């Protein structure tokens, strides 16, 4: 497994390079979630071990929140690591990076993992409830099945 700080650093650096601006924190967390899910879709395994919290606006990793605020996301992974996960990262950037943060939050709210992580919380509180990896795997399986059906009908997603 990889370091979530390195993956977040890569996302920040790539976003800056492709869009000419710093990624906002909310979007970073959502892209990390979609990267984790996409890695499970493609490889069957998570990319990093850190767990997401089911906050009111979607998945959040506290460690990333802290380093983002301190502007210390500068641990880009080795070229070999980026190459190993290029397909995962490319899919996430192609499908999600251009969307605004609020759209990504709404998408994450449709995930079983986030919904289950929010159980017992009011809509206005963040809480400390973790999103279950088994539920993220179910979200990944749903995406995999959807893609399979769409490819069967030759619909590109």
Task: Output the keywords.
mainly alpha, two-stranded antiparallel sheet, 157 residues, 61% helix, globular, 8 helices
Structure description:
It is a single chain. The chain has 157 residues and is mainly alpha-helical. It has one domain (4-152). The chain has helices at residues 4-19, 25-43, 62-69, 79-84, 86-96, 101-109, 112-117, 133-152; strands at residues 53-55, 58-60. Strands 1-2 form a two-stranded antiparallel sheet.
Q: Assign an overall shape.
A: globular
Q: What distance separates the N and C termini?
A: 28 Å
Radius of gyration: 15 Å
User: Helicity range of the residues?
Assistant: 55-70%
Number of strands: 2
H/E order of the elements? HHEEHHHHHH
Number of helices: 8
Report strand order across the widest sheet: 1-2
Structural class: mainly alpha
Note the main sheet: 2 strands, antiparallel
């Amino acid at each position: 497994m990889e370091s979530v700080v390195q993956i977040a650093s890569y996302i920040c650096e790539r976003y800056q390079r492709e869009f000419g601006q710093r990624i906002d924190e909310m979007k970073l967390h959502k892209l990390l979630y979609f990267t984790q899910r996409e890695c499970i879709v493609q490889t069957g395994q998570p990319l990093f071990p850190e767990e997401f919290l089911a906050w009111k606006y979607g998945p959040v990793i506290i460690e990333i929140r802290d380093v983002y605020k301190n502007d210390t996301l500068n641990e880009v992974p080795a070229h070999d690591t980026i190459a190993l996960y290029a397909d995962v990262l490319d899919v996430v950037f192609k499908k999600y990076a251009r969307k605004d943060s609020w759209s990504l939050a709404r998408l994450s709210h449709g995930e079983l993992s986030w919904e289950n992580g929010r159980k017992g919380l009011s809509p206005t509180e963040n809480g400390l409830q973790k999103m279950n990896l088994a539920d993220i795997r179910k979200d990944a399986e749903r995406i995999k099945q959807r893609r399979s059906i769409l490819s069967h009908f030759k619909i590109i997603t």
